[in-house]
Amino acid sequence: MNIAAKTMIILAAFISTLSLTSCNNTKSEPQDRLTLTIMTHDSFAVSEEVLSIFQEQHNVKVNILNSGMPVQL
């Protein structure tokens, strides 16, 4: 058997295995909401509406942590 034929057999076996493992019927458990903590300066502002939309779209809870005013150089 030549190299091309061996390569094709290995490739076919790999694709078959990949296609069978990707067709899994088990349902995945819903993931817990992650918390995204944003550390920012005191004058940072975001509306509750924007924050709410972001949290819903990305399934996260946002925690804004004010660190004070930035130091001027």
Rg is 25 Å
Separation, N- and C-terminal Cα atoms: 73 Å
Q: What global shape is seen?
A: elongated
Quickly count the helices: 2
Low-confidence stretches: none
Number of domains: 1
What spatial order of strands do you see in the largest sheet? 1-2
Provide a short characterization of the protein structure.
This protein has 73 residues and is of the alpha+beta class.
Explain what you see.
With 73 residues, the protein is of the alpha+beta class. It has one domain. It has 2 helices and 2 strands. The protein has a two-stranded parallel ribbon. The N and C termini lie far apart (73 Å).
Keywords:
two-stranded parallel sheet; single chain; about 70 residues
Give the secondary structure arrangement, pairings included.
Elements: H1 3-22, E1 34-40, H2 48-58, E2 60-66
Parallel strand pairs: 1-2
